[in-house]
């Protein structure tokens, strides 16, 4: 495992992808975390005030729990998770074995549209990440 | 595995408080949360049962200031101590940089400490980490109980039981009164940061 350090250039590229593909779409906040609960990068629309560090710790725990449940029922993994609320929703998607993309969005974006864009974003991020 | 952000110059360090049930892991974090409120930007997160026992983990992010221009963000976690929760204990250990093993100094808890330490050893192995290599600090907690006439193990016994092979730094402590809580924390932070530096060089 050697994912501990990412270059400034790579992070800037990833931030750009997130801003163009998700924040512009109307997503409130996007976070990339690793499975240990560390934040790789976080982008928001400038309005949302989330405590991203606590969020990352909880999200990593949540995803790890679901992953363990998947194994119990004989699945390799449940690669995406979605929580729906009154005003806001959270979408989790696995980038690779170590990274997780989390999008928080409101009522004005449809889940299907978000998912299409997330798939696109993940593919682009993987390319940047692989260049390490 | 700490994460180092070269763009924003942030290093995130994950420290886990590990130990048998009711040994005082959460109490350590609660004391730190109260005492260093100014350095803590957010609320302590506790996932617990109705009976106030830790269900998944406690989480406390802690800003330590800068080293060589990098912001050091310490992330403190506890594990659930109850025997049945080993699956979740293992999850919390993922990517750990440093561990505080909190042992319960009460005489009747002697065996539980040893069992918990053995399990830590196994759990680390599942991540290909070694208990002999990872930064580790021992904390012999609840020494204040001696004044209340409750039999506690002498430090020499605890050292022999838990630390004879590991030979890591140890502290007598009382998490509830705060005695040596900060000393334990400082020690594990410095060992973890030094170990990360070594890995990078």
Q: Mind telling me the CATH superfamily name of chain B? A: P-loop containing nucleotide triphosphate hydrolases
Oligomer: heterodimer
Q: What is the count of β-strands of chain A?
A: 6
User: Do you know the CATH architecture of chain B?
Assistant: 3-Layer(aba) Sandwich
- Looking at the overall shape, the CATH architecture of chain A is 2-Layer Sandwich
Major sheet characteristics of chain B: 8 strands, mixed
CATH topology value of chain B: Rossmann fold
Number of domains of chain B: 1
The mean pLDDT of chain A is 89
Radius of gyration of chain A, in Å, reads: 14 Å
> What class do helices, strands and sheet pairing of chain B give?
alpha/beta
SSE run of chain B? EEHEEEHEHEHEH
- The topology string of helices and strands of chain A comes to EHEEHEEEH
Number of helical regions of chain A: 3
Write the layout of secondary structure elements.
The complex is a heterodimer of chains A (132) and B (201).
Chain A: E1 5-6, H1 8-23, E2 29-34, E3 39-44, H2 52-72, E4 80-84, E5 89-94, E6 99-105, H3 111-130
Antiparallel strand pairs in A: 2-3, 2-6, 4-5, 5-6
Helix pairs in contact in A: 1-3
Chain B: E1 3-5, E2 10-18, H1 25-35, E3 45-48, E4 54-67, E5 70-78, H2 86-93, E6 98-104, H3 110-126, E7 136-141, H4 155-162, E8 170-172, H5 181-200
Parallel strand pairs in B: 2-5, 2-6, 6-7, 7-8
Antiparallel strand pairs in B: 1-2, 3-4, 4-5
Can you give keywords for this protein?
heterodimer, A: 132 residues, alpha+beta, Beta-Lactamase, five-stranded antiparallel beta sheet, 3 helices, 24% strand, B: 201 residues, alpha/beta, Rossmann fold, eight-stranded mixed beta sheet, 5 helices, 32% helix, 27% strand, globular
Question: What do these coordinates show?
Answer:
The complex is a heterodimer of chains A (132) and B (201). Helices cover 43% and strands 24% of the residues of chain A. Chain A contains 3 helices and 6 strands; from the N terminus they run βαββαβββα. Chain A has helices spanning 8-23, 52-72, 111-130, and strands at 5-6, 29-34, 39-44, 80-84, 89-94, 99-105. In chain A, a hairpin with a 4-residue loop joins strand 2 (29-34) and strand 3. The longest helix of chain A is centred in the middle third of the chain and has 21 residues, at 52-72. The two termini of chain A are 12 Å apart. Chain B has one domain: Rossmann fold, CATH 3.40.50.300. Helices cover 32% and strands 27% of the residues of chain B.
């Amino acid at each position: 495992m050697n994912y501990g350090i990412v270059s400034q250039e790579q992070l800037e590229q990833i931030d750009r992808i997130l801003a163009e593909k998700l924040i512009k779409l109307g997503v409130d906040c996007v976070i990339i975390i690793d499975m240990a609960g560390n934040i790789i990068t976080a982008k928001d629309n400038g309005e949302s005030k989330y405590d991203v560090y606590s969020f990352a710790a909880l999200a990593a725990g949540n995803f790890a729990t679901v992953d363990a449940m998947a194994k119990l029922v004989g699945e390799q993994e449940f690669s995406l998770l979605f929580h729906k609320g009154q005003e806001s929703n959270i979408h989790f998607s696995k980038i690779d074995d170590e990274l997780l993309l989390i999008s928080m969005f409101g009522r004005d974006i449809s889940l299907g549209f978000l998912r299409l864009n997330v798939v696109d974003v993940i593919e682009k991020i993987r390319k940047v990440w692989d260049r390490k | 595995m700490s994460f180092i952000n070269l763009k924003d110059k942030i290093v995130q360090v994950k420290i886990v408080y590990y130990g048998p049930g009711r040994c005082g892991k959460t109490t350590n974090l609660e004391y730190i949360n109260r005492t260093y409120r100014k350095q803590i930007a957010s609320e302590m997160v506790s996932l617990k049962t109705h009976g106030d026992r830790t269900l998944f983990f406690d989480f406390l992010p802690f800003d330590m200031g800068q080293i060589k221009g990098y912001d050091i963000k310490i992330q403190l976690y506890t594990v659930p101590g109850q025997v049945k929760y080993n699956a979740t204990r293992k999850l919390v250990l993922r990517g750990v940089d440093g561990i505080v093993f909190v042992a319960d100094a009460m005489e009747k808890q002697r065996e539980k400490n040893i069992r918990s330490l053995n399990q830590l050893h196994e759990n680390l192995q599942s991540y290909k980490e070694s208990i002999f290599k990872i930064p580790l600090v021992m904390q012999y907690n609840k020494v204040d109980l001696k004044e209340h006439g409750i039999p506690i193990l002498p430090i020499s016994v605890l050292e022999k039981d838990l630390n004879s092979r590991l030979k890591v730094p140890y502290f007598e402590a009382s998490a509830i009164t705060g005695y040596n809580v900060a000393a334990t924390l400082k020690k594990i932070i410095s060992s973890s940061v030094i170990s990360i530096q070594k890995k990078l060089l």
